[in-house]
Amino acid sequence: MENNGAEIVELTYYCKIKVHRLMCLELKKFIDRITEIFSSIESARPRCKTGIQALCSLQDTMDKAKALIQLCSESSKLYLAITAERIVLRCEKIQNALQLCLSQIQSTVPTLLAAKISGIIHDLRSAKFPLESAEEEAGKVVLALLRQDISESRSVLELEAIQLAALKLKITSPAAVLLEKRSIRRLLDTVSGKDPIKEKILKFLFYLLSKYGEIIGQGWNVSTVVQHDKSSYQSIEPEQHAENALDETRANDSGAPELPAEFKCPISMRLMYDPVIIASGKTFERFWIEKWFNEGNKTCPVTHMKLDNLYLTPNSAMKGLISKWSSELGLTIPDPCLEAHFASLSSLKSQSSNSIASFGSSMNQLCLQISSVSLCSSVTNYGSEMSDDKSDESFGHRPSQMNAESQGFHHSADCYDNMLASLSRLSSLSWGSQCKTVGDVKDQLQDNNQACRNAISISCIKPLIKFLKDAQESSDVKAQRDGAEVLLAILNENRSEIPSFDEDGIYVLASYLDSDITGEALAIMEVLSYQPNYKSMMVASGVLPSILKVLNTQFRALHRTAMKILYNLSHNGDIGYHIVYLDCIPKLVPFLGDHKLAQFCIKIIKNLCATQEVRIAVAETSSCISAIGTLLESGREEEQVHAADVLLSLCQEGAECCRLVMIETIIQSLVFLSLNGNSRVKGTTSELLQILERIKDDSSECSTPKACLGLDMSSEAVNHHKEKKSSFKPFWFLGKKISSHSIPSY
């Protein structure tokens, strides 16, 4: 089988499952749902590198899932039973991989497809892979026999163990025994000489079947076996004829009622949280229809007819019916906006766990000088800083609209109070109790339980910082991640009143930027970077080298958060020296060509250019000036404004910097924007052109060959100039353009 891996995908993995049927059913349910939309995902052709990699990873993960189902269909029942925990881990690994791949793909496909993917991600997050009790007992009894000294084990003990396991696994006929022996023999042929431990286990299982096969095949009465140890084993249910093909119609194991079609959003096919009516008369989930309109669509997703307007009218009647229906069943309706936030955080978590392993001790080689860093607060620039994304705002402020009495699956208000009290006195608990308390709080937050989030206050932050410090010292990654997620939720909930952090707290958080939870640490640092009081402390704590290290990785999901932190910190005048010291400018240049991050990058450079050392560093980085010129030519309007501001600050530095800016494409863009740009960019570019004109005139006075570069150029002079070196071409273009247009005076 291992030599024909490519064939696994095509096998009929829906054949009868021997063992772990519930897990395989759950796994197949997701594989079928993804398969239904896989061709649509391929047709969407995600062109970014991340999207292509995610698509390939998704296909690979689906193949692994099918191979696992095939394994449970063909392998030895006894061996599958004793390796049950490993099968569960493989299912969970596939579950996480599917969730990560789909989260990465979701942002690269059209809205309707993204909605379907969102539904799959939501269900994946809550999926469980249960072990059937009979199989678990069979595995335990065989494992117990394997752990004994075989030479000392008596035949009666072997017989009792193998017979009970065979009965649990329905190996109760001569044909079943024969099939099991053949399965073990095939496994032995596969592992022979490769895995001594596995080979030894398989040989022992084969020995048991060979020795006691006839007795097992007689099909003992159930009660006979139960009497051997009534205290250890429960009575076994009669054999059920439920091991049918996986493609059979299945009942819902959870007994959940059928969701009324009227309550489903036509886009996501999920229960609506905030139903709204559009001009076509159809009702949709507000989150998804807004996303549909924001992508430029002006038609109804159901009727495909063009809409007269894009107004959204709340469907209060529908919302009341949904609330009543869900309240009667004790269901909680998740907010899609909050789910989008948690999906993003999950993606960061998965990517950061893979990306930060290489950070390690390499950061110790970067010694950040902090002698010149002022720890005073800087409030002058805070008002102009970048606001949070909508997803962050919705996470922090959008209230849950479900009534408390409808949340039957959650704890009571008393439980919230107890949880808050435990969180506040975290340090007084044992380490195990601390981890459990923080983990319970995190689970409540991930369930989007607004009542739980409201119960947690900023008084819990200091105990959480202490918890994170202890978790780091004990190398407990799960505790680190749980603590970071809870802290992030508290900070997002209390953005308007961020509590006071001392230097030690900032240092603890900064140290997590080079850990297995970099994604969560970046998100926390981003929240703090909006606060003017913490900027100097963050720089002093050494966050810059870590952030630059993040920007140097291939995990784009982390780049945006890192850029936002840099932007917020760039308002602090003390950062400029460190940017030059760490050779940051060349590291930022590639992002000027990234249409998603160029806006952040050019703003960072603009803010940093308030420092002379940074202006010199930018001027000395030729690729930076060239990239800024490209942004000036083809960037968005706001990006062009900031690019012009950067060039103006460089040209004000002196004649040498002006000559570096005198590139033909840059001058073309300056002339064009001075005539066609908005009022702000017109003023900046016109001032730039005047400075360049003065520099050119000064050069003309000192060099006779450059006299032909005057603004009032005759045709003979122009022809003469064309014979000059190509390096003079930009100056000729400047003269020609300016002579034919009047430049506003300032």
UniProtKB/TrEMBL annotation:
<keyword id="KW-0808">Transferase</keyword>
<dbReference type="GO" id="GO:0007166">
    <property type="term" value="P:cell surface receptor signaling pathway"/>
</dbReference>
<dbReference type="GO" id="GO:0016567">
    <property type="term" value="P:protein ubiquitination"/>
</dbReference>
<dbReference type="InterPro" id="IPR011989">
    <property type="entry name" value="ARM-like"/>
</dbReference>
<protein>
    <recommendedName>
        <fullName>RING-type E3 ubiquitin transferase</fullName>
        <ecNumber>2.3.2.27</ecNumber>
    </recommendedName>
</protein>
<dbReference type="InterPro" id="IPR016024">
    <property type="entry name" value="ARM-type_fold"/>
</dbReference>
<dbReference type="InterPro" id="IPR003613">
    <property type="entry name" value="Ubox_domain"/>
</dbReference>
<comment type="pathway">
    <text>Protein modification; protein ubiquitination.</text>
</comment>
<dbReference type="Pfam" id="PF04564">
    <property type="entry name" value="U-box"/>
</dbReference>
<dbReference type="InterPro" id="IPR036537">
    <property type="entry name" value="Adaptor_Cbl_N_dom_sf"/>
</dbReference>
<dbReference type="InterPro" id="IPR045210">
    <property type="entry name" value="RING-Ubox_PUB"/>
</dbReference>
<keyword id="KW-0833">Ubl conjugation pathway</keyword>
<dbReference type="Pfam" id="PF05804">
    <property type="entry name" value="KAP"/>
</dbReference>
<dbReference type="InterPro" id="IPR013083">
    <property type="entry name" value="Znf_RING/FYVE/PHD"/>
</dbReference>
<feature type="domain" description="U-box">
    <location>
        <begin position="258"/>
        <end position="332"/>
    </location>
</feature>
<dbReference type="GO" id="GO:0061630">
    <property type="term" value="F:ubiquitin protein ligase activity"/>
</dbReference>
